[in-house]
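Two folds, back to back.
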Amino acid sequence: MEIMRRVVADRMELTITGRLDSYWADHLDSGLTETVREGHHDLRLDLSDVIFLSSAGIAVLVKFHKRLTAIKGRLVIASASPAVRAVLRMTRLTDLLVDEAPSAVPPAAAGRDLVRAGLAMEVFDLVPAARLVCRTYGDHGAPGEASGATVQCPEGRFAFGIGAFGSTDADCRDRYGEFVAVAGAAAHLPGDGTEVPDYLVASDTEAPAVRAVRAVVCDGSFAHQFRFDLKPPAAAVTLDGVAAAAIDMVGGAVGIVMVAEASGLVGASLRRSPVEGAAGGFFAFPDVRTRLTFTAERAFGRTLALVAGVAQPASAAGPAPHLRPLDAGGARAGHFHAAAFPFHPFRKGRIELNETVRGLFDAGGLLGVLHLLHDDREIVGVGQSEFTRGACWISPLDRGEPLGCLT
C-alpha cells in the first residue's frame, strides 16, 4: 500500500493505492495519526486505486472519522473503487464516509495574530477585564510539618500542589503526592511507590476534592485564550517561552492553564509521601533518591499535556515559597504541574476549557503527573519542558491572603 499526500487550500488530500487489509491497516493508522498530529483536521481520501478493503481497514477509517468529527473536523472518502464501494454498501457505511462533493468545514472563530520570538499566536479575548485571585496553603515549613486541608475543585477554579484523594490526614498520610485540578477534574500521582496516577471528575452535583498539605489555588475567570504554533526554524517552545508570552500579554503576574502537544516534559514526582519524615530531612542526600523521581531525560514525549500554574517576572512580589526560576537567567519565576495523556487531536481556533479538559479525562489513559522544573545542572541537565502547539487560557493574577483552610 502507498499513501500520497497533498494540501489543497486548507484541506489535506490523501491518495491511497493497493490493498487496505489487516497487514496494511496499522500503516494507514500511523499515516493518519501523523497527518492529524501535524494539525490537519479536514481529510479527503481518494480510494479509487484501492483494490481490496477489509474490516481492519474500515475500523481505521471509522475511528478517525469519529475523532475528527468530535473536534469539528472531518474525514471523508472523496473517490472509491468498485471494490471499496461494495464493502461500504455491505457494511452500511456509504452514507457515513463517502462525500464526493467537496463541502466546506464551518470556519473556526478567528482571533488576532501575534508573533513573539518564533512563536505564532492567535489570540481570543474572552472576558478582557477578568482577573484571577491566587491563594496558597502550606507556605511555611516542610509538608510533613503541617496538617492537610480539603481543596474543593469546582469548574471555576484551578489548583495544584501536594495532596491526595481522601477526607482525612490519616487516610491520605501514605499517599500524598503531586496533584493538578482544572475545570472540575483532578489528577493525582500517589506518593506510595506505586507510581500509578489516579483521577476524579466532577459529577452534575459534586466537585472533586483533594486533601492537600501544599497548594496553590486560583479562582476567577480567564481574560484571554491564545493558540500557539511554531514558526520555522523553531522546533519547540519551552515552558518559559509560553510563560514569557503570557506575562507580556497581561503585563505582569499571570495564571495559566494550557493543553498542548508535548515534545517532552521535565520535572519531578514524589515516590514517597513527604509526611513520613526522614532523618536529616526529606531531601537529604543520598536518601532523597528513594523519595523523589527526577526525569533524567524528557519524559512523556508526543503526548498531550494538561498544564496549570502561575508565573511572574522574578522581581515581582508573589507567593515566594511556591515559586522557582523558570529560566537559566532568572528573569521569570513560576510553579507548574502537568498531567500527561495519550495524544489525540483537538479542535482549532477558539475552544472551551471545560469541554477540552473533560474530553481528556473522558478518553482515559492518564499517564502521569509531574511538577515541572527547569533542570539547569551543568553537563547532565536536560533543560525545560517543550511543546509544539497548543492552547492557553490566561488571566492577570492578584495575590490573596494565605489560607488556614481551603474549601
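---
second:
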Amino acid sequence: MIVDKNNILKSISINSCVDLELGCGPNKKNSHAIGIDILEYDCVDVVGDVFDILHQVPSGSVNNIYTYHFLEHIAEIDKLIKEMHRILSINGKIYAVVPHFSNPFYYSDLTHKIPFGLYSFAYYSENKLKRKVPTYHNGTLFNQDLVKLTFKSYPPRYFRHGVKRLFEYIFNLNIYMMEFYEENLTYIFPCYEVSYTLSKKT
C-alpha cells in the first residue's frame, strides 16, 4: 500500500524533473526532495515499498536521487539500481552513501542485506578505478563521477576521530591510495562509509 500524502506521484511527469530521497527516515537531508520511506515519519512525502513507489514514477522524470544508508537494506539491489536508472533524466545523478563492508557495525545490523565497497558500482558504470571488474550487463548504465571513503568515530572519542580523519585524507589522495587501502588495510583501519556520485549515461 502506498500513502501519497500530497498526491505528489500523480504530478510527476517527464517535464517536472524532481529530486527524490530514498529511505529518508525521520531526518530528510534534502528538504527540496520528495522523501520516500516505508515508515511514516513527518518528513516522508510518500510512504510505501520503494519498488511500488518507483514503479509509478515516469521514465526520465527525476533529476537527482539521494540515498543515505538505505541501499544496504535492499536485497534486490540489481533491480533497484536499474529502476533508478530508468527514472533518471538525461545526465541525472545518484548520490549514494552506504556503510563500507569493513565497518564493524555493518554486520551487527540484521536488516543489512548487501555489503558495499570501493568497486561496487564499478559493475554498473564507466569508472576511473585502476582495477577493472567484469560487467554482467548489456553495457554500463552510469559514469562513476566520484567515489570517496569516509573514516570517523563517535563523541567523546575526539582523538580517535581526528586520527581517522587523517586516514581519510591520506587514503582519498588519489585512486591508487584508495585501491591500496581496500586491498591491504581494510581490516587494520576499518572504513566507516563509502560515497558514490553516478551520472546516467546517455
